[in-house]
């Protein structure tokens, strides 16, 4: 796991589980040391107790709004200019221009069924030559004449209707008879039935799904004008991390290096590189100042321990801290900084579930806005079981969806991935916790939600 050891002070207040029943809170002082302080139980009104005066972190909802605002400032710049993308590379992008039909759809009268094109009342004499899709326009039919026709084939001029294969039969003389009433125009798709050339099929801002790719191809497009994917560079920090094999000799496996790139791609990003830097302030500064990515994502090193270099490096390069700690558990020491005019850095805590919390709190709204993706519609479900809360911070708890309720999962400590690996969503638990049956806002995980989020490329 990318769980930074407490020698560095990383996630010190997250790594220790507070006891709700004993009403204990973990409070981090400015030097990074954790202290236990008794917290009075929630008042009868349901309001959470007041946090200590030194608890200066940003509220969770405000942190997410700040990340989205930071991205909106960038999208007004030239670096986010639309790009022309081939259809095969456009999945998951957002249209930057209207998708206008380049042709009528269908572009000629076509058969909606396999059967016979018929003219006038039956019975009909059947031509020797049939009509297949992809062929030039066939000769006109005369009254009393029919021609075998395939689905999608051009309708011969003067055709009255298409008689489905299962609704016709031939007699001993080869003449075609209908076994049910024939209605004028039946099973014929007239030219322009779906749209006319120049009609707007989709507005700017529409997400390019597989169905949109099909529609664009049918309408005559080879490329789409889209908002480019934000480019993301991932910097994995920590001398204690292994890239293969089982943990040994005080070293642990890096869980975030394999997990973050596909997750970031699911959020609409293009991951340009993943670099492992260890605990080196010089290497971190060189990597940050030399990066041309739109967003830099770091893992670990966001607290105040002896090898937590993110804050000092950001200070030395003159970065602007937009969010410095968030009132959320796990993941309190996350941060968001503007490192250049059109570049941001998201500092994730090193503990795996705390990093996921930071990813969904700061990286998701930042990347979604940069990619011009629509914000997901918020929704709630009742919790089937009690969800323990923090006395004065929001808590994100992995849940599975069962029917019309959400079931909180165990193994939800900041260093654990077992709960989130089985989860469908994260429940947003308010300060003080949530009772069974209480409605909770849910954050869908990309692989569990409907739509484009399931695509990791």
From TrEMBL:
A UniProt-annotated Pfam family: MoeA_N
Residue span of region Disordered: 1-62
SMART domains according to UniProt: MoCF_biosynth
EC top class, as a word: transferase
UniProt-listed Enzyme Commission number(s): 2.10.1.1
Alphabetized CDD domains for the sequence: MoeA
All copies of domain MoaB/Mog, residue ranges: 233-369
Alphabetically ordered keywords of this record: Magnesium, Metal-binding, Molybdenum, Molybdenum cofactor biosynthesis, Transferase
SUPFAM superfamilies given in the database record: MoeA C-terminal domain-like, MoeA N-terminal region -like, Molybdenum cofactor biosynthesis proteins
Pathway(s): Cofactor biosynthesis; molybdopterin biosynthesis
Function comment: Catalyzes the insertion of molybdate into adenylated molybdopterin with the concomitant release of AMP.
Family note: Belongs to the MoeA family.
Protein name according to UniProt: Molybdopterin molybdenumtransferase
Organism expressing this protein natively: Streptomyces doebereineriae
């Amino acid at each position: 796991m990318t769980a930074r050891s407490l020698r560095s002070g990383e996630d010190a207040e997250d790594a220790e589980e507070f006891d709700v029943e004993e009403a204990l809170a973990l409070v981090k002082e400015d030097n990074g040391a954790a202290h236990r302080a008794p917290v009075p139980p929630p008042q009868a009104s349901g309001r959470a107790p007041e946090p200590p005066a030194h608890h200066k972190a940003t509220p969770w909802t405000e942190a997410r709004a700040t990340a989205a605002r930071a991205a909106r400032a960038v999208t007004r710049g030239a670096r986010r200019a639309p790009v022309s993308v081939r259809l095969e590379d456009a999945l998951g992008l957002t249209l930057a221009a209207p998708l206008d039909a380049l042709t009528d759809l269908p572009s000629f009268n076509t058969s909606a069924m396999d059967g016979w094109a018929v003219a006038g009342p039956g019975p009909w004499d059947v031509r020797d030559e049939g009509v297949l899709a992809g062929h030039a326009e066939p000769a006109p039919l005369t009254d009393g004449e029919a021609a075998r026709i395939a689905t999608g084939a051009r309708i011969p001029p003067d055709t009255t209707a298409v008689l489905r294969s299962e609704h016709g039969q031939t007699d001993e003389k080869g003449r075609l008879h209908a076994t049910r009433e024939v209605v004028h125009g039946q099973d014929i798709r007239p030219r322009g039935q779906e749209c006319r050339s120049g009609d707007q099929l989709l507005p700017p801002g529409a997400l390019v799904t597989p169905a949109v790719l099909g529609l664009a191809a049918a309408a005559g497009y080879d490329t789409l004008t889209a908002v480019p994917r934000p480019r993301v560079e991932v910097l994995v920090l920590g001398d204690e991390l292994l890239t293969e094999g089982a943990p040994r000799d005080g070293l642990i496996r890096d869980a975030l290096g394999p997990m973050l790139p596909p997750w970031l791609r699911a959020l609409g990003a293009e991951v340009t590189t993943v670099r492992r830097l260890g605990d080196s302030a010089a290497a971190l500064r060189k990597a940050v100042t030399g990066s041309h990515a739109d967003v830099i994502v770091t893992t670990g090193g966001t607290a105040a321990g002896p090898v937590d270099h993110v804050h000092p490096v950001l200070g030395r390069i003159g970065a602007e801290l937009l969010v410095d700690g968030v009132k959320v558990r796990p993941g309190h020491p996350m941060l968001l900084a503007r490192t250049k005019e059109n570049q941001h850095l998201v500092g994730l805590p090193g503990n795996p579930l705390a990093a996921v919390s930071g990813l969904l709190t700061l990286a998701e709204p930042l990347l979604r806005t940069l990619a011009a993706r629509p914000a997901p519609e918020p929704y709630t479900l009742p919790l089937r079981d009690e969800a323990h809360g923090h006395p004065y911070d929001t808590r994100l708890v992995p849940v599975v969806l069962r029917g019309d309720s959400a079931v909180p999962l165990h193994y939800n400590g900041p260093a654990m991935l077992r709960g989130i690996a089985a989860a469908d969503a994260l429940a947003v638990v308010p300060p003080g916790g949530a009772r069974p049956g209480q409605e909770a806002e849910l954050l869908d995980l990309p692989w569990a939600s409907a739509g484009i989020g399931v695509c990791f490329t």
